[in-house]
Amino acid sequence: MDEETVERVRAAVRAIPPGETASYGEIADRCGLRSARLVGRILAEDGHDLPWHRVLRADGTCAPHIAQEQSARLRAEGVLLVDGRLPRRSPRRS
């Protein structure tokens, strides 16, 4: 994978404010990538200095191998998971 792609992903993850989350797919979309898995791979290989804990799976859950640390970091920022999942926001009504 090229350095430009890695830097786009890193910038998108850095841009997630404390107390907010994004999915791997949302990051992929923001970076013009076809694969959410590529975002996960980049974070696994080169994301230790990023707020990686703010990136969740599409269903609002943490990756199993990092779930305990990820949920603790999110909790410290005020993001509470319910039964291991980010609660879905109710749709806005006009």
TrEMBL record:
<feature type="domain" description="Methylated-DNA-[protein]-cysteine S-methyltransferase DNA binding">
    <location>
        <begin position="7"/>
        <end position="79"/>
    </location>
</feature>
<dbReference type="InterPro" id="IPR036388">
    <property type="entry name" value="WH-like_DNA-bd_sf"/>
</dbReference>
<dbReference type="InterPro" id="IPR014048">
    <property type="entry name" value="MethylDNA_cys_MeTrfase_DNA-bd"/>
</dbReference>
<keyword id="KW-0227">DNA damage</keyword>
<dbReference type="Pfam" id="PF01035">
    <property type="entry name" value="DNA_binding_1"/>
</dbReference>
<dbReference type="InterPro" id="IPR036217">
    <property type="entry name" value="MethylDNA_cys_MeTrfase_DNAb"/>
</dbReference>
<protein>
    <submittedName>
        <fullName>MGMT family protein</fullName>
    </submittedName>
</protein>
<dbReference type="InterPro" id="IPR052520">
    <property type="entry name" value="ATL_DNA_repair"/>
</dbReference>
